[in-house]
Amino acid sequence: MEQRARQRIAELRNDHDYQEQKKHEFVEHNRNTFGVCSLCASYDNLLLWAHYSYNHTGFCVGLSVDSLHNISVSLAHNNELLDLHRVRYRSRLLNPNFFKSMISLEDTRHVQAFIETKSRDWKYEQEWRLVFWHHVNEAMPLGHVAIREVILGCRISSIDRDRILDLCREHVPHARVLQAGKSETRFSLDFTSVEL
Q: Rg of the chain over CA atoms, in angstroms?
């Protein structure tokens, strides 16, 4: 019986199709072990407002990097991992070896490359990714203290504007609130402070 088991293991190790299937299953399993929140380093990009705030009718929330760091440290005490990664933009497609990275505690470059790499076409986004390991499709409560600013889109409705301002007064009175507006002289946005 033991000899048959050893023989079968040897066959599986030499079976390329089996190895590829298991690698694919392993990669897919591990690919789905983290949640990603995409963030941006800039709040004045016209394309980002058009793409991500329903053509300037939404709003933007600015987060404190110090607060994210403190949350990360706090989570680490409970064996939770929250990472902030700057996206790197490249013209060539990377082929990260997830399988190798997942079985090596020392070499996680391939997983990190997957998390941090995007096409050069998206460079204008100046993206950062907040990665919460072993939490997929979950809301992560950052707390009100993490909110540093709220920026209202230049085409936001008066109803939405009033609702957001009420929420800011109640929950984040410490946050800076700005109203975006179209520049009269450039293809850009101007921002004015809003009193709470």
A: 23
Residue 91's pLDDT is what?
92
H or E element, residue 150: strand 147-152
DSSP labels for 70-118?
HHHHHHHTTT--EEEEE-EEESS-----HHHHHH-SS--HHHHHHHHEE
Backbone angles phi, psi at 22, to 5 degrees: -65, -40
| pTM of the predicted model as reported, rounded to 2 decimal places | 0.76
Structure tokens at 101: 């990275």
Q: Are strands 147-152 and 59-63 parallel, antiparallel or unpaired?
A: antiparallel
What pLDDT digit, counting tens, does each position of 144-164 carry?
999 999 999 999 999 999 999
